[in-house]
Amino acid sequence: MSKLGNIGARLHRGEISYDFIGHRKLWYGISILITITAIVGLAVRGLNMGIDFQGGAVFTTPKTSVSVSQAEDYAKEASGHEAVVQKLGNGSLRIQIAGMDTKQSDQIKNKLAEDFKVDTEKIAADLVGPSWGDQIANKAWQGLAIFMVLVVIYLAIAFEWRMAIAALVALIHDITITVGVYALVGFEVTPGTVIGLLTILGYSLYDTVVVFDSLKEQTKDITKQTRSTYSDIANHSINGTLVRSVNTTVVALLPVAGLLFIGGGFLGAGTLNDISLSLFVGLAAGAYSSIFIATPLVADLKEREPQIKALRKRVLAKRAQAGTETEPRPEPLDEPEDDDAAHAVVGPRSQPAARNRGRGRPSGKRR
User: Fold this and answer.
1) How far apart are CA 70 and CA 316, in angstroms?
2) What are the strands of the beta sheet with 56-60, ordered from one edge?
3) Residues of the chain with CATH 3.30.70
4) Taking a C-beta distance cutoff of 8 angstroms, is the pair 234, 298 a contact?
5) Cellular component GO terms, alphabetically (predicted)?
6) Statement: residue 327 has pLDDT above 60
């Protein structure tokens, strides 16, 4: 068995564990700090909304020797707006201008044809009106809200309302961090970004439900015993599924990291950045929230119940009583061994005593 697998088995059996619940205030503090940073970045920098949300135009030129940076300057001069330019595989350029008035598309197209020294008819123009962008944004928010409501209803029925609230807080935590990273990095928000967000929410929810299911099974008839508190069992549930959560997260992050850093970074496939960044940040945040936020929050909410409070008092009282009864006795100081005891046995123990009679003693006869 591999070393990681051995650790996972020992964690599942409870032979070793880490006190996640006991350090929950630390995890809450880290999450609050990251969330505040994300909100500040979102408020200061804002989101770089794509053309599908703002409206605008996309111009595609024929094969040209004009560089990307030079094309960006041409597009900004022609439209008065910042442009996103991508070089396509056939040598043509895709110029995306968001937030522009679509009525000026013909004027901008003529200016670009003049700068690129090509015929106007060879430049293709695709227009997206602002009303279409608003409709896309509204649909995205509606889909996200419906998803949240369905999640809360399902978890409240399948588990309990406290777990539903904890899962909802974890999902909001993941969304806030992912959106904040988008604002800080300045990546363009596209429909692919929304798809990535919904995907990572489902993944985060799956990871959280795995821990909740283990917790639900282990807390059946919890008030009929006095060995463990609810927090103890919650901590055991996290440790029991820890290696599984880490393995699934790493396996999911590796291909996404390839899309983000290799595809979008080294190979320059900028169209992969919008969905790969949301997946990468969301998967990492989802794994963190399922371990450090959702389950500790459930334990906090459950510990407020009168029955769970009474159970905690009984468990702590029993532990205190057991600790008093089994106080460790002071070990005796090391003393030198008794010489008589050390030399009590001269020969091998299996040697018959009769063979040694009379040896080493005077016979009693005088000479």
Assistant:
1) 72
2) 83-87, 93-98, 56-60, 124-128
3) 56-128
4) yes
5) plasma membrane
6) no
Say which DSSP state 350 is in: T
Query: 60: helix, coil or strand?
Result: strand
What is the tens place of the pLDDT at every residue in 275-300?
888 888 888 998 899 899 999 999 99
Select the more confidently predicted residue: 48 or 152: 152
Task: Tell whether the model's pLDDT for residue 272 goes beyond 90.
Answer: no
Look at residues 248, 300, 312, 211 and name the one whose alpha carbon lies nearest to residue 27: 300
Whether domain 56-128 has CATH 3.30.70: yes
Q: What is the mean pLDDT of residues 13-32?
A: 84
Q: Select 13-49+132-318's CATH number: 3.40.630.30, 3.40.50.1820, 1.20.1640.10, 3.90.1150.10.
A: 1.20.1640.10
Q: Using 50, 70 and 90 to split pLDDT, how confident is the model at 12?
A: low
Radius of gyration of the chain (CA): 35
CA distance 56 to 47: 16
pLDDT tens string 176-197: 999 999 888 888 788 778 888 8
State whether residue 87 is helix, strand or coil: strand
pLDDT band at 269 (very low <50, low <70, confident <90, very high): low
| Residues 183, 199: Cα–Cα separation, whole Å | 19
DSSP 237-304: HHHHHHHHHHHHHHHHHHHHHIIIIIIIIIS--GGGHHHHHHHHHHHHHHHHHIIIIIHHHHHHHHTT
Backbone φ and ψ of 101, nearest 5° = -75, 120
Q: Strand 48-49 to strand 188-189: parallel, antiparallel, or no bridges (unpaired)?
A: parallel
Query: In the block, which residue shows the tokens 């895709």?
Result: 94
Q: Are 20 and 14 in contact (CB under 8 A)?
A: no
Task: For residue 46, give the amino acid letter.
Answer: G
Separation CA 201–CA 239 (nearest Å): 22
Instruction: Look up the pTM and report it.
Output: 0.72
- Identify the bridge partners of residue 57 per DSSP, sorted by sequence position: 97, 127
Residues, the chain, total?
A: 367
Question: Any bridge partners for residue 79, and if so which?
Answer: none
